[in-house]
Design goal:
The chain has two domains: 209 residues, 3-Layer(aba) Sandwich (D-Maltodextrin-Binding Protein, domain 2), CATH 3.40.190.10; 100 residues, 3-Layer(aba) Sandwich (D-Maltodextrin-Binding Protein, domain 2), CATH 3.40.190.10. The N terminus is likely disordered. α2 crosses α10 and α2 crosses α11. It is 37% helix and 18% strand. The chain has 15 helices and eleven strands. It is globular. By secondary structure, the chain is of the alpha/beta class. The strands form two sheets. It has a six-stranded mixed β-sheet with strand order 1-10-6-9-7-8, with helices on both faces. It has a five-stranded mixed β-sheet with strand order 3-2-4-11-5.
C-alpha cells in the first residue's frame, strides 16, 4: 500500500443549510425545551477523549446547548475510555464519551452500563496508522514484527488494526501493541522519537502529526470490514441513568443538536475544537470529520463491535453465545 504525505488541505468555504434540529440547537426553539426536574442533577461531568469523533459533545458545549437544557456540563479530558471505567462505577464520573470496546468488555464481566447516544462512525482519514517521514515501512506487510503505539490496551485502536492486519493476511499476534498512557496528544512526538514503528491516531492528531513532524499515513483504517465502523458513544452506568432519567434525556437532546451541527456545519466543528483541543488553527481548520449519528441507538451497528471483539479475542469464547444472540449489546441499549 502506498503511503501518502500528511498535508493540510483547507476546508472550502461554503454556505451550509443546517438541519431543522441543528437550527433549533443554535437558536430559539431549543431554549423552550424543559430543563431537568429540580430533584435531578443539573451538574454533570463528562469524561471524553480529545478527538474529532466527539465533535458533537464539544459543539454542544461551545454553542451553549447543554445550558439551554438546564445542564452545567464539565468536560474532563482522558487518554482512553478504559482508564476511567473504575471511577465511573464508583460514581465519580457521570457520563463517559469514548470507545465502546472497554464498556462491552465490562458489561460481559458483570458491570451494567447504558449507551445514552451514539457519538461517531468511522469515516475516511479520521483514524489512521501513521509512520515517520523517514520510516523504511512502505506497506502493511512491513508492520510484521514491529511495535505499534495505541492510546489504550485492547481498545478501538487495537481492534481496527487487528481487522486491517487480518484482511491483509497478517495475524495481529505478529505485531506488538504498546499503550501510551498520555494518549493521542503525546503520541505524534513519541512516534518521532521512535518509541514504536507506527502509531494509531485519531483526528485532529493525524493532521498535527503531518503539520508538526511531517509524519505520513501508512493506512487509513476506514477500509474493508471496518468501513463505517461504530467508534464512540456516550455511556453512563445503568444505575445513574435510572436515577436521573430527565437529566439523561436532557443530555441526549443537547447532544443530538450538537451532532446535527457537527454533521452539517464544519465551521461549527472548527470553532468548537479550536477552543477545546489546544491546537494551532491551521491544524483545526484542516481536520477530517467523522460521521455523527442522530436518533435512537442502533443496536445492530453496535453489534459489529461485539462481533469483532469476539473474533480477535477481546472477549472470551464463554461469551460467544451472548454475543451471537445479541443479548450482550441489547443489555446496554435503553
Amino acid at each position: 500500500m502506498n503511503t501518502r504525505s500528511l498535508r493540510p488541505v483547507p476546508l472550502m468555504a461554503a454556505v451550509i443549510t443546517a438541519l431543522a434540529s441543528g437550527c433549533a440547537g443554535a437558536g430559539g426553539s431549543a431554549a423552550l425545551t424543559p430543563a431537568p426536574h429540580p430533584s435531578e442533577e443539573p451538574d454533570i461531568t463528562v469524561s471524553a477523549l480529545p478527538a474529532i469523533d466527539l465533535a458533537g459533545l464539544y459543539v454542544a458545549q461551545y454553542e451553549g446547548l447543554f445550558a439551554r437544557q438546564g445542564l452545567h456540563v464539565t468536560i474532563d479530558k482522558i487518554a482512553s475510555s478504559a482508564a476511567i471505567i473504575a471511577d465511573q462505577l464508583k460514581g465519580r464520573v457521570d457520563i463517559s464519551a469514548g470507545s465502546y470496546v472497554p464498556y462491552i468488555s465490562a458489561q460481559a464481566a458483570g458491570a451494567r452500563f447504558r449507551i445514552l447516544a451514539e457519538a461517531s462512525i468511522l469515516q475516511p482519514d479520521t483514524r489512521e496508522l501513521i509512520i515517520t517521514a523517514d520510516s523504511p515501512i512502505t506497506s502493511i506487510a512491513g508492520l510484521e514484527g514491529k511495535k505499534i503505539g495505541v492510546n489504550g490496551t485492547n481498545s478501538i485502536g487495537t481492534l481496527l488494526i487487528s481487522l486491517l492486519l487480518s484482511e491483509n493476511g497478517i495475524s495481529p499476534r505478529k505485531v506488538t501493541f504498546v499503550t501510551d498512557d498520555k494518549g493521542f496528544p503525546a503520541m505524534p512526538g513519541q512516534l518521532q522519537d521512535h518509541a514504536w514503528s507506527a502509531a494509531f491516531l485519531a483526528e485532529p492528531y493525524i493532521t498535527l502529526a503531518g503539520e508538526e513532524y511531517g509524519e505520513r499515513v501508512l493506512a487509513d483504517l476506514d477500509q474493508g470490514d471496518a468501513v463505517g465502523f461504530p467508534i464512540d458513544g456516550y455511556i453512563a452506568t445503568r444505575a445513574w441513568a435510572e436515577e436521573y432519567p430527565k437529566t439523561a434525556a436532557a443530555f441526549v437532546r443537547a447532544i443530538e443538536q450538537g451532532q446535527a451541527l457537527a454533521d452539517n456545519d464544519p465551521a461549527a466543528v472548527q470553532a468548537a475544537m479550536a477552543r477545546y483541543d489546544d491546537l494551532p488553527p491551521e491544524v483545526t481548520a484542516a481536520i477530517a470529520l467523522s460521521g455523527y449519528p442522530i436518533g435512537p441507538v442502533d443496536q445492530t451497528r453496535i453489534q459489529r463491535v461485539a462481533q469483532a471483539m469476539l473474533q480477535f479475542g477481546f472477549l472470551g469464547w464463554k461469551y460467544a453465545s451472548e454475543v451471537e444472540r445479541g443479548t450482550l449489546v441489547a443489555s446496554m441499549v435503553g
